[in-house]
Amino acid sequence: MNILLFGDVVGRSGREAIKAHLPGLKRDLAADLVIVNAENAAHGFGLTERLAGELYDAGADILSTGNHVWDQRELIQYIARDPRLLRPANFPEGTPGAGWRLNPLDGDRSVLVVNLMGRLFMEALDDPFARLEALLAQYALGHGATAIVVDFHGEATSEKMAFAHFADGRVSAVLGTHTHVPTADAQILPGGTAYISDAGMCGDYDSVIGMQKAPSVRRFVTKMPGEKPQPAEGEATLCGVLVVVDEASGLARRIEPVRFGGRLTPYLPRP
Predict the structure, then answer these.
(1) pTM of the predicted model, to two decimals?
(2) Chain centroid to CA 202: how far?
């Protein structure tokens, strides 16, 4: 089973790159499931129903989010109507929407996709470790889910790594998002779980994490507030990972980065 996850889509540049290139990548990499973190798709802040539809039309099967999930207020009503759109599962009980989806595939296969958010240097949500533990009491590899993939949206690499080792051998992959910078630590952990600290963003890398350079630099230099950050609008690089899962065990056989277009050195894995 081949699973693709693309990191945070930032603004129009990131959306247009997804629409232009995802259909071909999905075909060429024989992806059974595509997960796209869409929390920065609406001009860098949040997501709307219309933009979610555009990403689905381009080939996304599941949309994950993170700390910017509620930046566009219309999503509060929409998310309850869209089971393929996830918010972090460790938001408090009663929060609109769902934090996981058991996504069916052909041949009686299924993938449990879980969206969680870290707490170190982030908002004070419920414990993501405990939330995963509760979910794994309901679903286990080979017993309820062919594969289990976690989008762990977090700031601290230490928290992401600790979480991955906590989940090692019990999920197919723990894939980090949020920092907008792709890391070089893609690996298979000792128990068979694929891991990367951050998949990177789908956006213009001639920027400061997807936002225009000059205002961002000015804020650091002057320590003064300025205009609201605006997404950079140059050619985007698509950044993500391909995880190949052994369907018999549910564990990962391979994880490789995916980088296509834009400024970063391209890398496309073999199918």
Answers:
(1) 0.97
(2) 10
Return d(Cα 209, Cα 269) in angstroms, integer: 24
114 Cβ partners below 8 Å, 6+ apart?
Answer: 89, 99, 100, 132, 135, 148, 149, 150, 151, 171
Give the closest residue to 52 by CA, choosing from 9, 113, 110, 100: 9
Do 65 and 86 form a contact (C-beta atoms < 8 A)?
yes
> Could you give the dihedral angle defined by the CA atoms of residues 171, 194, 55 and 182, in that order, rounded to the nearest 10 degrees?
140
Helix (H, G, I), strand (E, B) or coil at 134: helix
- From the CA atom positions of the chain, what is the Rg in Å? 17
Question: What DSSP character marks residue 150?
Answer: E
Q: Give the number of other CB atoms < 10 A from CB of residue 83.
A: 13
Strand 110-117 relative to strand 147-153, pairing: parallel
Whether 68 is a known active-site residue: answer yes
Length of the chain in residues, anyone? 271
Question: Mean pLDDT for each consecutive 10-residue tract of the chain (271 residues)?
Answer: 98 97 96 98 97 98 98 96 98 97 96 98 96 97 96 98 98 98 98 98 97 93 87 96 98 97 92 75
> Which residue in 21, 68, 178, 180 is the catalytic one?
68
- The DSSP code sequence of 40-92 is TTTTTS---HHHHHHHHHHT-SEEE--TTTTSSTTHHHHGGG-TTBB--TTSP
User: For residues 100 and 63, is the Cβ–Cβ distance under 8 A?
Assistant: no
Q: Which amino acid is at 242?
A: L
